[in-house]
Structure formats: C-alpha cells, structure tokens
Amino acid sequence: MALVVAQEVPTSSTMAVPHGPSGVRVARRRMRDELRACGAPDTVIDDATLILSELLSNACRHARPLHEEAADPDGTGGGKPVDTVRASWRRDVRGEVTIAVTDGGGPTRPLPAKPSVTARGGRGLAIITALARDWGVRSEPDTPTDQPPGVTVWAVLRPESSFSGRVAASLGDFGDGLDGEFDLASVEELK
C-alpha cells in the first residue's frame, strides 16, 4: 500500500553540484536513486539519467558556473564562493519527469548542432531532442546585477514515450510473443 501512495505523490529535488565532471556523477546517482524510490519505471530512469548527464556536461563544457556561497564548517554560511551548477528534477502525478540544469550562462545559447561523423562531440542536444517530449532554454531573471544572466536548460520526459521503452517494445515485435524475448530467427526471416 505504501508503494502506491509513494507513486502518487510528486517528487522533486534540487542540488548544487561542482562545475565539472565530478558533479555529473553525483547528480546522476542521486536522481536515479530518488526516481527509483518513487516508483519510476527503469526505462524512464535510464532516459532521465542520460538527459541529466547531457545537460550537466553541456553546462560544464560551454557555460560559466554559478558562484554560490559555501557553508562554513559550522553550517552558518559565509564561506568562500564555489563554482557550481544547479541540477533539479521533478516527477509529477502523471509520471512525467522534468529535468533542469541552471548555470551562469555562456557566450551563446544552446542549439542542436549537426556534427560531422568523425566529430567527438556536438550530439548532446540531438540526444535530448530524441528522448524528451519537449525541451527549451530560459534566462533566469533573479541573477545578481553584477553577473551575466543565468540560463536554465530543461527537458520533459513522458513515461509512456521513453526511448528505451520504445526500443524494447519494437524488439518485442520480433519475439515469439510469449515473454517479449528477442528472437534472432525472426530477424533472419526479414532478410
């Protein structure tokens, strides 16, 4: 009974992570654990984790960090500023997951690229476009006047349209129909 109640209650989190690769790992782990605890399907968790990774990686690669005040050891604040990026996610009562990353902005706005086949990067927003129902960019109006405006990139993932769920369903079409297992003989018949 408690599991049913947990699935009906929206869940959300916001966390500041270091502006760099270590922050990506920390945020991915926390989001995965929290979505699993609230009953999100594994296919949604996988897609949400990939989207969060892409958004955080893009923020660390292309944008300035946010300068947030670190807490002193006694927890009172007043520590020196640290470079962070803010990650947040929310799962609503319908099961949609909204993922957002806020950074200190950059010289350009995030736009999908068309990288060459041999390019080492440039595919992040194309991946997000393929996985998410919708995504976008917004300026943060509450940025201090002595800093460039912060930017939030967000994406919404619908549970019934997760990419990994669509792939699994399409592979099930090749199965024997009993348990959804993949049947290589069915693929051979298509040749």
UniProtKB/TrEMBL annotation:
<dbReference type="InterPro" id="IPR050267">
    <property type="entry name" value="Anti-sigma-factor_SerPK"/>
</dbReference>
<keyword id="KW-0067">ATP-binding</keyword>
<keyword id="KW-0418">Kinase</keyword>
<dbReference type="InterPro" id="IPR036890">
    <property type="entry name" value="HATPase_C_sf"/>
</dbReference>
<keyword id="KW-0808">Transferase</keyword>
<dbReference type="InterPro" id="IPR003594">
    <property type="entry name" value="HATPase_dom"/>
</dbReference>
<feature type="domain" description="Histidine kinase/HSP90-like ATPase">
    <location>
        <begin position="21"/>
        <end position="141"/>
    </location>
</feature>
<dbReference type="GO" id="GO:0005524">
    <property type="term" value="F:ATP binding"/>
</dbReference>
<keyword id="KW-0547">Nucleotide-binding</keyword>
<protein>
    <submittedName>
        <fullName>ATP-binding protein</fullName>
    </submittedName>
</protein>
<keyword id="KW-0723">Serine/threonine-protein kinase</keyword>
<dbReference type="Pfam" id="PF13581">
    <property type="entry name" value="HATPase_c_2"/>
</dbReference>
